[in-house]
Design goal:
about 25% helix; mainly alpha
């Protein structure tokens, strides 16, 4: 980790992404469909049909929570 700025590990795939995790916190800085915040792949890849149907493909986790993604919610 200390040597990332010096290029150590450069060119070996997705080392950084594979070895770090994102903390969602309040969800304002985490994109619902594009960031890996639950599971191992972005939700847009895990659920491509739902992603294609989504009106707002750039919404955050916080926005989806606020819209109530549970059954009967607006999300």
């Amino acid at each position: 980790m200390c040597n990332v700025h010096e290029g150590v590990g450069e060119g070996v795939g997705t080392w950084f992404e594979d070895n770090t995790r994102q903390v969602v916190g309040n969800g304002r800085d985490t994109l619902f469909w594009h960031d890996i915040w639950v599971g191992e792949i972005p939700l847009r890849l895990k659920f491509p049909r739902l992603f294609n149907l989504a009106v707002n493909k750039q919404c955050t986790v916080e926005e989806m929570r606020r819209l109530e993604w549970a059954e009967g919610g607006r999300a």
